[in-house]
Amino acid sequence: MKSRIVALLIASSAMGLASSSAFAQVAGAQPLGVSVEVSTAIVEGWSVKKSILNKPVVNDEGARVGVVHDIIVAPDRSVSFAIIAANQFLGVSHHDVAIPIEQLDFVGGKLVLAGATKAAIKALPEFQYTKVKAAPVPRAQFEHH
Question: Domains, the chain, ranges and CATH?
């Protein structure tokens, strides 16, 4: 099941690659949007926003241990971490932690972090966003593009 969540997240980030590389780039002829094949994949696909973001995370005993606030996508476009709020009151996070995406699983329709407790998550170092550029790095700056 863990491989399924990783595969779904990777597939959702790869959709952007498929939609942009499916057409030859000819000046003035580059279509906007996606092809019929890609739009079918989107319709049959899965939404990170609806399925993961702001959803509770439980441990293997069903106890709530946090809420997913963000998904981190690495520069190589791989999904690497989930940012989990260990202590939240009225939607305001007091202690976010980064959890490797491979440690999360879907079990019975719930997002599960096996072996976790609120105390264990609060004991992890707090995750803080670094000062990032306003926009992601352009594709032209990556060696493989």
Answer: 2-128 (2.30.30.240)
